Amino acid sequence: MQPIIIVLVILVVLVFIALIKTIQVIPQASAAIVERFGRYTRTLNAGLNIVVPFIDSIRNRIDLREQVVPFPPQPVITQDNLVVNIDTVIYYQVTDARAATYEVASYIQAIEQLTVTTLRNIIGGMDLERTLTSREEINAALRGVLDEATGKWGIRVNRVELKAIEPPTSIQDSMEKQMRADRDKRAAILTAEGIRQSAILTAEGEKQSVILRAEGEAKAAALRAEGEAQAIRTVFESIHAGDADQKLLAYQYLQMLPKIAEGDANKLWIVPSEIGDALKGLSGAMGNFGPMGGGGGGGGGATIGRQATGTERREQPPID
Question: Which of 12, 99, 18 has the alpha carbon at shortest distance from 54?
């Protein structure tokens, strides 16, 4: 009985192993390559799959999701003979598991070497300044070459990114000095522009102030002149309306003489010739009211003043 039990156990184990090898579960976004006696048979997709045990074998399991592979810095020579180190990142996806298994031995290594050689060809036609400022152009050119070359391997390159472009240390120092000089230059230009604008605004303000002050003075002078003219016009109209005669004018002049004589420096003043006529008329009027009658009129007029042909100077009589 024991040999039979042993045989049964062996059979159960063999059946269990056969079931395990027969049923293959492939995860989502994955694929498996099946070979029969070393020859490619089919590709297993995601889900439950049945294979012939001990005859079919799983050669390779491939992840069909998009993969990200960073490559180490690669020294590249630019057109102006400067060595720069460039870090790259490749985003790729396997679209054909069979081609990725049989068309290339190691597609990761192949993509890396193809990236290096293509990057050297692209950077070799650019100078350093263009290399530092043309990342999008380099990415597009590199992606186009890689996508075309890896298509037969069942690989699709979705994106290529340059992580860093590091020029030599001496070039970095020179670029830093140049950037510092450019910043200082821009700061000096902005300062000069500020001073210039401030001077322009100050000059404009002073100009406007002078113009407004002049306009104010002109308006004030015009108003004063207009007021004086109105006052003269009013006095003139009042005199004509009152029909003033020479006697009244002479009397008013006599009232103004003490004010004219005020001050220690007033030794002489100008007497218009018309005032003489007015004084003669006034003296004649006063003589008519005096005790001398009409005969004293001429003498009184002679003592006050005489008619002048024009404007003449008269000395101030001493005050007793």
Answer: 18
User: Residue 293's CB: how many other CB atoms inside 10 A?
Assistant: 10
Give the distance, in angstroms, between the CA of residue 140 and the centroid of all CA atoms in the same chain. 33
Interatomic CA distance for residues 179 and 186, integer angstroms: 10
Record the tokens describing residue 28, joined without a space. Answer: 């989502």
CB crowding 263-282: b at 16 or more within 10 Å, else e: eeeeeeeebeeebbbbbbbb
Question: Which residue shows structure tokens 């230059």?
Answer: 185
Whether the predicted pLDDT of 302 surpasses 80:
no
In contact, 120 and 86? CB cutoff 8 Å:
no
d(CA 62, CA 45): 10
| Average model confidence (pLDDT) across the chain | 78
What digits encode the pLDDT tens for the residues 59-100?
Answer: 888 999 999 999 888 888 888 888 888 888 999 999 999 999
Give the burial string for 24-46 (b: 16+ CB within 10 Å, else e): bebeeebbbbbbeeeeebebbee
